[in-house]
Design brief:
The complex is a heterotrimer of chains A (132), B (597) and C (585).
Chain A (H helix, E strand, L loop, with lengths): L6 H22 L5 E6 L2 H5 L2 H15 L4 E6 L11 E4 L6 E3 L5 H13 L6 E2 L9
Parallel strand pairs in A: 1-2
Antiparallel strand pairs in A: 1-3, 3-4, 4-5
Chain B lengths: L5 E6 L2 H5 L2 H14 L6 E6 L11 E4 L3 E3 L7 H11 L8 E2 L6 E2 L6 H4 L17 H6 L4 H9 L2 H11 L11 H10 L6 E6 L8 H8 L1 H15 L3 E6 L4 H16 L15 E6 L9 H8 L23 E5 H13 L1 H5 L9 E8 L5 E6 L4 H8 L9 E6 L5 E4 L9 H6 L8 E6 L4 H15 L5 H18 L5 H17 L3 H5 L2 H9 L1 H8 L15 E3 L9 H5 L5 E2 L7 E2 L9 H5 L5 E3 L1
Parallel strand pairs in B: 1-2, 7-8, 7-10, 8-9, 11-15
Antiparallel strand pairs in B: 1-3, 3-4, 5-6, 11-12, 13-14, 13-15, 16-19, 17-18
Chain C lengths: L1 E5 L2 E5 L5 H7 L10 E3 L4 E3 L8 E4 L6 E2 L9 E4 L3 H16 L15 H8 L18 E2 L3 E3 L9 H9 L6 E3 L6 E3 L16 H5 L5 E3 L3 H9 L4 E6 L1 H4 L15 H11 L3 E4 H24 L9 E2 L4 H10 L13 H17 L6 E7 L3 H6 L5 E2 L2 E2 L3 E4 H10 L21 H4 L6 H15 L17 E8 L2 E9 L1 H13 L7 E5 L18 H16 L10 H11 L5 H7 L10
Parallel strand pairs in C: 1-7, 13-14, 13-16, 15-22, 16-19, 21-22
Antiparallel strand pairs in C: 1-2, 3-4, 5-6, 5-7, 8-9, 9-12, 10-11, 17-18, 20-21
Helix pairs in contact in C: 9-11, 9-15
Chain lengths: 132, 597, 585
Amino acid sequence: MDKVKSLDDLRKMKAAMQNATELREKGQNIDKLIEVKVSMATCGIAAGARETMAAMMDEATKRGIKNIVFTQSGCMGYCHSEPTVTIVRPGEEPVTFGEVKGKRITEIFDSYILKGELVDGIIPLSSKSIHD
Amino acid sequence: MANVRMHVLVCGGTGCTSSRSLEIVDALRAEIKAQGLAEEVKVVIAGCFGFCEKGPIVKISPDNTFYVQVTPEDAKEIVAEHIVKGRKVSRLLYVDPKTTEHISDSKHMDFYKKQLRIALRNCGFLDPENIGEYIARDGYMALGKALFEMTPKEVVDEVKKSGLRGRGGGGFPTGLKWEIAASYKADQKYVICNADEGDPGAFMDRSVLEGDPHSIIEAMAICGYAIGASKGVVYIRAEYPLAVERLQKAIVAARETGLLGNNILGSDFSFDIDMYYGAGAFVCGEETALIRSLQSERGEPTSKPPFPAESGFWGKPSNVNNVETFANIPVIFLKGAEWFASIGTAKSKGTKVFALAGKVNNVGLVEVPMGTTLREVIFDIGGGIRNGKKFKAAQTGGPSGGCLTEKFLDTPIDYDNLIAAGSMMGSGGMIVLDEDDCMVNVAKFYLGFTVEESCGKCTPCRVGNKRMLEMLEKISEGKATEKDLGRLRELASIIKDTSLCGLGQTAPNPVLSTLDNFYDEYLAHVRDKRCPAGKCKSLMQYVIDPAKCKGCTMCAKVCPAGAISGKVKEPHVINQDKCVKCGACFATCKFGAISKR
Amino acid sequence: MINLNIDGKYVKVPKGATILDAAKQLGIEIPTLCHLDLHDLGVVNKAASCRICVVEVKGRRNLAPACATPVTEGMEVHTNTMRVLNARKTVLELLLSDHPKDCLTCAKSGQCDLQDLAERFCLRENRYEGGAQSTYKKDVSPAIARDMDKCIMCRRCETMCNDVQTVGALSGVNRGFNAVVAPAFDMPLEESVCTFCGQCVAVCPTGALVERDYSWQVIEAIADPDKVVVVQTAPAVRAALGECFGMEPGTLVTGKMASALRQMGFNYVFDTDFAADLTIMEEGAELLDRITRFLSGDKSVRLPILTSCCPAWVKFFEHQYPDLLDVPSTAKSPQQMFGAIAKNYLAEKLGIPREKLVVVSVMPCLAKKYECARPEFAVNGNPDVDISITTRELAHLIKRANIDFMSLPEGDFDSPLGESTGAAVIFGTTGGVIEAATRTAVEWLTGKPLDDVNFTALRGLEGCREAKLKVGDLELHIGIAHELGNARKLLDSIRAGTVEPFHAIEIMACPGGCIGGGGQPYHHGEMEIIRKRAQAIYREDEGKTRRKSHENPDIIKLYEEYLGKPLGEKSHHLLHTHYFKRHKI
């Protein structure tokens, strides 16, 4: 830990340390953030869900999106469309997307995450998750 | 930037640590590494979550899954199922006793719904041994604000405006205390943190020190700035090795980061903190005895005035505050005194941390806004009385407090209401008693403690409390008369009126409170020679009902005193003179033939 | 000034005064027990622990201890409401409930502050009797006897021992009901750094700390037909003995005392004052010798010379400054010089072996009991001074001998060890020893008789005093300290070099000097008593025709006939001693 010699230094250190606890802060306020739930069941992982999650996290960082949090859920049952990602915008119903990889990630970011516009390939939700 | 996508917080408070929570940490880390997820998943040791009944606690962020009663053996499953596959391990989730459903997010639990964690804001959230995490959460910003945006007087005024009152038990307005200390001129002043926490069963301060030590350091520095003190002293009981270690590490980290020492944050203000250790004396929680102990003198209180603000440590103006009081300071400056004053009642602002214990279902550390009723704490948060028994009383204030009976259940908790109800807030211990607790025994228990801990300096406490204890022992042995009850009451009030310090002045409170609220129980002991709750051994007898006894001889076999006689297949008899009331026969009889009376 | 109201009466007192002070001014005597205030001597015990003096203060939730509560403007105090009376009675009952009931055989009966309170409060029954008692092992040392079952935790002895005397032999130990004041690790007093100054005994309100009583041995000696029993009386005794018979403090009873002793059956009634003159001869010579050698450039000479007549001071020095054992004078104390002369010179004159002679000393002091038993002051197991009793023990003996003290005629001391000068008498008060030494030393140094023998610069009751006296070309720098705490202050400043070098220093362990000794009639905290005794001593000095030690004809005769000269071989052998290193803790 470097020495802080002024209030400015402290502020800079805070900014630098932000990511240390950011995840937990976000967890406390999940309903105010955009939650991106990646299905991580066996089939999901086989289909590349972990890479999807990492890629989406990178994308969020690249775009400087702060009010977003990434969690994972178990098998949602849509094994045919893995990797599946459910996105909950604050105050809105969850929307699940299938086959989320590669270019689709960019699409989903551009349209749904940033603007709330739906894109193709949405899977209708018919069951509730443990979260609710 | 590492893509850490999950934090696993494991409770590192004393309670959970004793239940192997650190082994859980090791097991989790090993398993996560084995799964190649060490870059993505971070395991953090956090402070006390408060739900001690259900510890060890493991909380997963950001999905807020709250696992209870976790063992190191569960680590593998948690990693494989939840961390890798996102499937919660439902057997480790909390089950709501009312709905019998799993609840995974603590904010939906009855235990947490009515709590407002201000003093405990960082406990269970931050790694107490990482100053970076504290800073990430606005740590030391309050100090920065005070140093650069406020004058010492403005700092004092802010604390006054907040309405914060001492959380150690006295409830003295903190801002006023700081103001008085600030008013004295001296070449050296001290900020003293009372971390002696002597009340039996209290662990509020311990949890703050273990889970968020930097909040105390920051608060003491703010106090130093406000009153003009460059030295801070923490008097911490040696029986808290984990708290000692965490605080020591935090002080070192603060120094290394330049947040303690000379010219903090480039200002003119210099402040550093030394730690001193208690040696096992409850009386050293009294501020003047504490100061004597700091000075390597016999820990006996001295007459007030002079108060420590005028003449304290080494005769210099000193401000003594409790740990929980200090824990509230940084947040008052970050969120504003008005915000703090908006919580609580008219004369008691903010929240209070209680160590809820006794016959409740949810034993643990709770923090509620002042004004929350006793009923809400015991029945909503506490989950009601264990084993479906009936509520009898709630003892607050430890050995200095009194019992609140059913008629006070809807009293909003605040300093003045509790005193009016015949008890006091104290440091926050709250013991719930049910129909099986004997109130005479409760008074005797607390008095036994104060007699043991009395320093012996003044007559009323040294001799008077001992005589009261002897009277209580006589009562619980069935050897007292009704006249003795009057004598007990009179002695109790005189001890209150003449003792030199708070220990003696409040030691009679449990006696007076139980005499007031449960006089019939005392009468039963002295007039009928009977203990209604069945607790006082001398007044209790085990008897065999000849109608139910089958003569199986099992009870006679387990009796350690050879007090049971009888022939096979014939009713047996307990010889009361030999009986030692161990209850082994009662536990053994399969026919329900043995009863207590 | 602060205005307040006590029991309906208004009073004005300076800021910082306590309710107790204010009440006293109004003639209201609030009872106290642990309180002790001899602030002129720096002896203040404000523990506020007994809670006897509690009073009602309007606006205060609980009762306030009058001795430790400072007055505030407009304060309203009530000292005798039912609430206060009940509380006071209960506190006393509690004290008595954990106290032995052996008043009839207790050394303090009739003199006990606790007994006085029980009598004053008219206590006829104790509602809290019958419970557990806090009991302790008894501890008997040569000078002081401890029975801590009777301790009421007033802390006066602790204050005396630690704050005033800075000896540190006693402190609070244990916790709660079994709390008591004792030496560390419960060791016997004899094994600790206790100097036996007896000041703890002088201030103890109960029979917990009393002197070791040897009066029965005195009776046995007098009754023994085979023994010749002689008695010597210290200067401070004659200024205080009268108090034991109801006389005003400060009444000189020298003549009556001599008569009483004679009537009691002592074979010879002598005077320690004689030996005090002898001490001046030896110590004066020693002082002169050191000064002359120092002035002539002898670097090995040790200055200042410290007086050594106070055995508590000597023991203190041996424990606390063991590296400076060659600094004090080697002269014995008057008690011991007397003993040596008695068992040699007098025994020879009487033609009896020393074993047949019993030397009894009457002292204001408890340390003298310890001193006479020191092994270096015995020859083949036979002590120079056999028994040392206190002023209090003498009073008891007189009463036991059925003597009506008040009606006694003025008697005289016997020869050849009964003649003394005014210089000897002033040994009894602080500053007296050094003034006596100065009267002789100045005349010897200058060779001229003194115009004025009164060295008032050396008198007074301040704890640490100093004076500069012009003696010819020499400016004699003299220091005086009474109470061991002041002695320590003075010695430490000498060690640290923060004061101008002294030539001679007089140290007395007791407040006021011997007149305030541990064996004197109890003063119960009355400062005036000490002051009046000091005045009496100086009065006796003024009343004497001879006021310089070297002019004592019997002393001159002793040297001519027997000793030779001061610091000579025989003088050295009989009248000088050496010191021992003792442990610090």
